[in-house]
């Protein structure tokens, strides 16, 4: 593992280590938290960094470091779950849109184009307004919002693969459509879908944070980075670091994911490998 990281570009290696740390903290965060992230202490409201509270406290005297460590989990869960949902349904729709009957393909792709015409945040706001807030709801909503992105990539990639000789050979030998899809098409369109998945994780983290910032995401008192940023803006003049720490964590995580996505794109595309 160490040798593999040394062969990477420094920025990519640092991003990989940061993401590994984020995932590890999302799994074992409660064990690392020095204090109970839900414990209210009225005598320690909005305190700056100190030996007792390394990153300070919030408006209820709760330890910021503990809430940051706990707040990683819902953000990562929503981003990963939404990406899996979007990738599964989007890939299915894209393949059907390229390989299915013409009328079905037309209906699917025009529906995808309509959804792509709206900003993701607008679609998410419309959907979240009718659903109960929570991790599962955010997974479903954000997954549906980013499904068209995977569908468009899968459809265009499938159209290119279908022109290749090995697909024509499968057809000439009388292979079933399912065999052609799973043996000839799907393995050869995974590269762009993997790159899109990394970008979608970053976009889903930002979208979840935006919804939580507006009070439509993770339900308090469970913390999330976006929710903490939304609350901290009211105390910016009193405790500016309350806003800086979650914003910095969010920015560094999204930046690391985007760097990994660019690296995967260069690695999986032979035209960009040099």
TrEMBL record:
Record's keyword terms, sorted: Cell membrane, Membrane, Transmembrane, Transmembrane helix, Transport
Q: Known SUPFAM superfamilies for this protein?
A: MetI-like
This entry carries the following GO cellular component terms, namely:
plasma membrane
Transmembrane spans = 76-100, 112-131, 137-154, 180-207, 243-264
- Residues forming the ABC transmembrane type-1 domain are 72-261
Gene Ontology biological process terms from the UniProt entry: transmembrane transport
PROSITE patterns with a match to the protein in the record = ABC_TM1
**Where is it predominantly found?**
membrane
The record describes its membrane topology as: Multi-pass membrane protein
Concerning Gene3D superfamilies, the annotation shows: MetI-like
Q: Can you say where in the cell this protein is located?
A: Cell membrane
Task: Give the UniProt family note.
Answer: Belongs to the binding-protein-dependent transport system permease family.
UniProt cross-references to PANTHER family, sorted A to Z? OLIGOPEPTIDE TRANSPORT SYSTEM PERMEASE PROTEIN APPC, PEPTIDE ABC TRANSPORTER PERMEASE PROTEIN
Question: What is this protein identified as?
Answer: ABC transporter permease
């Amino acid at each position: 593992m160490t040798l593999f990281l040394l062969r990477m570009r420094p920025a990519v290696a640092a991003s990989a280590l940061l993401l590994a740390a984020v995932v590890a903290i999302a799994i074992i965060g409660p064990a690392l938290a020095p204090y109970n992230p839900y414990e209210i202490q009225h005598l320690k409201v909005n305190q700056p960094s100190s030996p007792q509270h390394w990153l300070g406290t919030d408006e209820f005297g709760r330890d910021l470091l503990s809430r940051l460590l706990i707040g990683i989990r819902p953000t990562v869960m929503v981003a990963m779950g939404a990406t899996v949902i979007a990738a599964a349904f989007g890939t299915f729709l894209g393949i059907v849109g390229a390989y299915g009957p013409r009328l079905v393909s037309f209906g699917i792709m025009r529906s995808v184009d309509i959804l792509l015409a709206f900003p993701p945040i607008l679609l998410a706001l419309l959907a979240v307004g009718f659903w109960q807030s929570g991790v599962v709801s955010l997974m479903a909503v954000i997954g549906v919002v980013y499904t068209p992105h995977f569908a468009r990539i899968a459809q265009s990639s499938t159209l290119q693969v279908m022109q290749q000789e090995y697909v024509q050979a499968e057809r000439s030998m009388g292979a079933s459509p399912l065999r052609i899809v799973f043996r000839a098409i799907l393995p050869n369109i995974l590269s762009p879908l993997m790159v899109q998945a990394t970008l979608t994780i970053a976009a889903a983290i930002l979208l979840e944070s935006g919804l939580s910032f507006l009070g439509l995401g993770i339900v308090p008192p469970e913390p999330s980075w976006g929710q903490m940023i939304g609350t901290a803006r009211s105390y910016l003049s009193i405790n500016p670091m309350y806003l800086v720490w979650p914003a910095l964590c969010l920015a560094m995580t999204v930046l690391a994911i985007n760097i990994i996505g660019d690296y995967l794109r260069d690695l999986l595309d032979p035209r960009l490998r040099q």
